[in-house]
């Protein structure tokens, strides 16, 4: 009995020591890190009823932002400009606190109500998330937009290319994420273009040069883009758009018979991109390095060769959780057209708004902010200059960004929430700053200068 008693006492002592050490470590952490760990470990609230969504589906009706009135510039030269509105809101689900949906619409297209997508970064280990991540959509938009411009440039030259593949990789990084001065960055964007064709190399280089000049999303990254942010506190902004319980039962999305989304059986790897080996670390190990987390997202845009939809591309995208998704991107052919899938710039716009929404989620958790609801509403003005000339160029003119929150917190706390969310947004900082671009070209698998 005495021996068992000594063992019990020793065991209790070890437990007390371990608990004391854990408590010391816990309370030595900044409150923001403790709040983040708690946020990640605790499941969300469960609900009796959930709205069922597809990963990608059409909007039921046109979007009506509550913080601004969507507008377009009506001039003779604006026919090739594009104005895209995005609205994001959180989706309540106990399996993921990062589940959200984004709604997007290109303005001034007859009878078009745009698209809705699910985005998620909160999947448990070994499970598929409810949808690709915001930065997966963002990168998909980049790759597909360049792909489309190559096709258009080739058409302008009167030549048909046998096959086009565009691979884009974005390297994202946080710097002191939980600090009040934390920031997110898009360090470098790499694009590899492969064209299969028997056309002479000089013509291919000319086509690529024209495509790069009109690569709207790429030009937005390589140059400083004007961002006009706004904070909207309280008001009657949450009657139409608000966080509500929702789920998706499959990674398969269908629009009629057209397959919009699926997860590949085996993760797809790019052929020409050199990617860093991902670190095999679970969520608990990741917390220690999360403040300065660095990761890559890639997208591969491939030709579908649909004669009726010449700009329809299949885009394979990676996610932070490891799997790869296949989605599709399409483009308007005329003002009365109906696309089979979101456009490349709609994906890019969605990725930007959804990324900011992710940061508002994380910052509100770090600050232990008391709020009822929040969302993001954006409009991005895509412009074109020197139309029908060799100097033609496309770019983003302005990003109008609105963060809306319903909260009784102090103005000072809400201003911090707002500014820190903007600063941590990788996608927004990629637009705001000049991003390093690395671009390589291949003709029939052989690199050209």
From TrEMBL:
SUPFAM superfamilies, per database record = OsmC-like (SSF82784)
Q: Which domain of life is it from?
A: Bacteria
Q: What is this protein called?
A: Putative OsmC-like protein
Q: What is the lineage of its organism?
A: Bacteria, Pseudomonadati, Bacteroidota, Flavobacteriia, Flavobacteriales
Q: Name one Pfam family in it.
A: OsmC
Report the coiled-coil segments.
none
